[in-house]
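Sanity check

After download, print the first record. It should look like this:
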Amino acid sequence: MSETSNLPSTAQVFADVEIGIGTWAWGDRIFWGYGSGYDDQDLREVFEFCCRNGFNFFDTAEVYGQGVPNDCLESSWQTQTCLFA
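Expected structure tokens:
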């Protein structure tokens, strides 16, 4: 039996915790290397992981990452129940 088999899932750990995901770094080329270290597909995978694991609050703004977070969230949110602020 592996040592990790007794660990709770991410969803179980955070079941009673309200947490939001900040998206200001999504799409930022200057500080976070968007386009050379990660891209839209990576952001979609992060979004989908968050939604699958109970994270459903996303903090975003038009100025974050030159609008990339909004574009990514807009194209992905339609299949999820999430709150965007």
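If your output differs, re-run the checksum step. Summary of this record's structure: Residues 4 and 32 are 31 Å apart (CA to CA).
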